[in-house]
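Work Package 3 (structural annotation) set out to generate three-dimensional models for the target panel prioritized at the project kickoff. During this period the team completed the workflow that converts sequence records into discrete structure tokens, so that structures can be stored uniformly alongside our sequence database. As a representative example, we reproduce one entry of 218 residues exactly as it appears in the project archive.
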Amino acid sequence: METFIHAYSWVDIRFLLQGLWVTIYVSLISIALSFVVGLILGLIRYMKIKYLSAIVGFIIDIIRNLPLLLIIFFTYFGLPQLGIVTNPTSASITALVIFEGAMLAEIVRSGIGSVDPGQMEGARSNGMSYGQAMYHVVMPQALHNMIPALLSQFVSLVKDTSLATIIVLPELLYHAQIIYSQNTTYLIPMYVIIAVMYFIICFCLSQVANYLQKKYNN
């Protein structure tokens, strides 16, 4: 018990909160950007545009079968070789957006495909263009169907930010490692508190998803 008390000094807690802020910042930016990317790619795949849909599908399949850690290494060490300057934060966000965008594209494609085709046909018969029917009729229903899968993927994204420790992103896990590297007796207390912090973030995401699901149901 004494070890836990000492490990949770205000200095250490404040240091962990700094790492937590980086985790939240990277997660929020990555969630927003990867959703936009996934939405666009998912629509392209669903619409079966000649050649383009096949090319996009091929790229998505490649990315989905690569380890996220490899993509992180590429964005941090590989992009500078191509003249694109990165830092741990931008490299982490880029890697997460690439990987999660590919994952979300399949969720979006499946979500749109789950909507009864009669909804599109009915909207078109009432004078709507394809784009209007997709935006006003199909997508709201598809998003409702996607909520559980989207939440699961966003939770995975939050947890995946810990992989960026390998490129020295100053996020939550990296800050915890610095603390217990100075005193190995703090290892268990640090893992306990970061587990609690990750749980809080993921729980908040689930509450947001529940709110959105209830809103759509109403």
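The mean pLDDT is 88.
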